[in-house]
Amino acid sequence: VFGAYYNSYYGSLQNDYGYWLMDATGTWTGDKLTATTTGKYLTRYKMGNIINGEMLGTYNTTDSVWQAVNAGVYDGAPLAWSGDVTADQNDNGFVYGAGLYSYDYYGVGNGWLDIEGDSTGIMGYTASLWSDPNFKIMGTYNVSSGIAVGPPYLWTPEINVWGTVTASTGAYQGFIGGVWKADGTIDANVYSLYIDPSGNGGILKGTVAGAYYPQLNMFEASGTWTPTALTFGLDVTTASVNIVPTNYGYNITSLGDFNGAGNITVAADEMFSADKWMYSINGQDWGIEKSIIGGDYTGPTSDTWSLSTFVDLSSQGTIYGTMTESNGTVIDGAPTQWSNGVLLGKTYGYGADITNTPMTWISVGETVGTFDAAALSWQAVQTGAWLETNKFLAMTQTAEGQAALTALNIPFAEVGRANLSGSGTMGGAPINVNMQCER
């Protein structure tokens, strides 16, 4: 596999930089090498394939060097939109921006998520973002020197639209949260805020799958996402995104098990064992969130597992809680698992803020991570959508709101209702009590 990051000219467009990956298959005979080549590329303005390529060269076994030329045919089409994949929003006091993490285990209850590096790249597609769910990603990554915990890695990059934002283009900003697994494959979820050309604001939600190449320090992925509108009448040229970070490594308590056996815990005594980010469009009471956590466990493990966490930051004005469940099958269309080095689950959360603008909220999303059966440690990314409580309740009362909740996999069905009545005595006097449920 060959790969490169390059700058080039495409027609009259300057600095059409991008990436290409190429596979070569052939023979080395005598001092001659021959191969056929195929590949793909993604630039700011175009994407396509390298087809019908031929490579011819020589090699020297004495010096272990080789050289070759390649020629062939490529195809492609212009991009309808382009975006950036960049470092995440982490600022732990030592480095700003990361994106690749691995859990560094130091015994039961002791460990933290090491920042191993970050990734940068391009995302885009040949059809409109607002009418086609597909996108492609290609880029490079780096791993910090002196740290060799992973792979696997947690992957948490920032994503945003590239170019000048206008009312006719719309815009998005969000993140990817997932894992680069030990087998070289990528499995992730994507959540992003958006404002489309009609002024509708909402959440883009989807999945990402791909591969990374340690020999090249490159990665590629494909994904799909779907916009779910939550409001309208926004001005994309003036709207801003609020990002609220929280580190709660010292303040988190956890309780988890495997179908009633063993236990799963978050490493709560380490500074960098858990971080959370909440995104929202300025003035809106809904948004997206991402958390990274890690810890240890004892078996026997099972695809039926659960983990509850509680964060007490009441001295700072906030509390958080999550419940991640897995029944070993499927929850809301998503698989659940704790086996073969991979953990997957459905996550439900809540929170309260009693600072400048008091509010409560609920959240629903996914957990994806990996575990080390030898060290009995685990690491995961939790991503999802959050809604202020009154916003959520209002959405349950309309057909449009219920459709949006369904698209975001947020449960809202009323399970049951009852009127209660009774009689008795209090202080020696008879009383009658009636409780009537009303909508």
Descriptive overview:
The protein is mainly beta and 439 residues long. 4% of the residues lie in helices and 60% in strands. The protein contains two helices and 31 strands. The strands form five sheets. Strands 17, 18, 19, 20, 21, 22, 23, 26, 27, 28 and 29 form an eleven-stranded antiparallel sheet that branches. Strands 7, 8, 9, 10, 11, 12, 13, 14, 15 and 16 form a ten-stranded antiparallel sheet that branches. Strands 1, 2, 3, 4, 5 and 6 form a six-stranded antiparallel sheet that branches. Strand 15 and strand 16 (218-231) form a beta hairpin. The longest helix is centred in the C-terminal third of the chain and has 9 residues, at 399-407. The protein is globular. The termini are far apart. Residues 8-13 have low confidence and may be disordered.
Percent of sequence in beta strands: over 45%
Low-confidence stretches: 8-13
Look at the helices and sheets and give the structural class: mainly beta
Please summarize the sheet with the most strands: 11 strands, antiparallel
* Percent of residues in helices: under 10%
Tally of DSSP helical segments? 2
Q: What is the first-to-last residue Cα distance?
A: 62 Å
| Outline | globular
* Average pLDDT taken over every residue: 85
Radius of gyration, CA atoms, in whole angstroms = 25 Å
Task: Please provide the count of β strands.
Answer: 31
In short:
This protein has 439 residues and is mainly beta. It contains two helices and 31 strands.
